[in-house]
Design brief:
Layout lengths: L7 H14 L2 E6 L1 H6 L7 H14 L4 H4 L7 H17 L5 H10 L4 E5 L5 H4 L7 E3 L2 E7 L9 E2 L1 H10 L21 E4 L9 H16 L5 E6 L10 H10 L4 E6 L13 E5 L2 H11 L10
Parallel strand pairs: 1-2, 1-7, 2-3, 7-8, 8-9
Antiparallel strand pairs: 4-5, 4-6
Helix pairs in contact: 1-11, 5-8, 6-11
The structure holds zinc ion (ZN).
The site of zinc ion has 7 residues, from loops.
């Protein structure tokens, strides 16, 4: 495995040059990008909206709450509606997402993400250039699942947040599968019951087409905030694409944890730093596209 080379500023310059001369940019974005945007699952953001759940159930952060065995459906949906509201609907669009989407406009690009917070769509990414593999807070599915479809939840989540009392939603608001009547769950991949709906498969196909179209050309593989927990979706495929394409540039931006195989060291730029700062700098150094705040 190879280590990082060059200063932060030199790395930004190198990536900017690679993007300017590239035929295409493939972005792979993980949880670290939303962390860099300030959307922390613990600390003040958690305390502000979930102190009651912390006091009663001992839940210490938003991630852990997703796995808590709540006593009933009304309580579980009080948790989830608040979780979804805070992270999908009520929060702002993060600056690093805005910077990234603006610098991609006008270029040939595709975004592959494991994030479920809908930030790319809200930042204005072209939806035909996005594949969100792990689901979306804004969608519901049957838990079985008895059919492969997802359902928008905004109106229902708004009501559940508004009408919940003492950490319970009214029973009539608990979402039920329109076909089998089971209590629905968020469309988030945690096991093999995850629903891959028609839109998911269309996006997968577009991603595969993009990869095939650029497997031998000058392409930048821009990996942002992808940790070591689920490397099989973004990190390993990006390593493989770089190793099979000498004209590819592989960029990895991650806080406190950068690693790449030594076989692709000459094509690799490792940036151990803040993805928000990196994208702000990078956007400032790229010409063309929509690179002004007024855009
Ligand atoms: Zn069902």
């Amino acid at each position: 495995m190879s280590g990082s080379t060059g200063s932060f500023s030199e790395s930004v310059d190198r990536v900017a040059r690679a993007i300017e001369r590239a035929d295409a940019v493939l972005v792979g974005a993980g949880a670290g990008l939303s962390t860099a945007a300030g959307f922390h699952y613990s600390g003040p953001r958690f305390e502000k909206d979930f102190a009651d759940f912390r006091d009663r159930f001992g839940i210490t952060d938003m991630y852990a709450g997703g796995f808590y065995p709540f006593p009933d459906d009304e309580t579980r949906w009080a948790w989830w509606s608040r979780m979804i509201w805070v992270n999908r609907y009520a929060c702002p669009v993060g600056r690093p997402y805005q910077d990234l989407v603006r610098m991609l406009r006008g270029r040939e690009y595709f975004v592959l993400t494991t994030n479920v917070d809908h930030q790319f769509q809200r930042a204005g990414v072209d939806r035909s250039r996005l594949f969100y593999t792990q689901g979306d807070y804004g969608l519901l599915q049957c838990p079985e699942p008895c059919h492969q479809a997802t359902y928008d939840n905004e109106d229902l989540v708004r009501l559940m947040v508004r009408d919940q009392r003492d950490m319970r939603v009214p029973s009539e608001l608990v979402p039920r599968c329109p076909r089998c009547g089971r209590v629905m769950v968020p469309n988030l991949r945690c096991d093999d019951t995850f629903v891959e709906d028609e839109g998911w498969h269309v996006a997968l196909g577009r991603y595969q087409d993009f990869v095939a179209a650029h497997e031998s050309g000058s392409v930048v593989l821009l990996e942002l905030g992808v940790g070591a927990n689920t490397p099989v979706i973004i990190k390993y495929p990006f390593w493989r694409m770089a190793s099979q394409n000498p004209k590819a540039t592989y960029v990895q931006v991650n806080m406190g944890e950068t690693i790449a195989p030594s076989a692709i060291a000459d094509q690799t730029v490792l940036v151990d730093g803040d993805a928000a700062e990196f994208l702000r700098e990078l956007r400032g150094r790229l010409s063309g596209g929509e690179n002004t705040d007024a855009a």
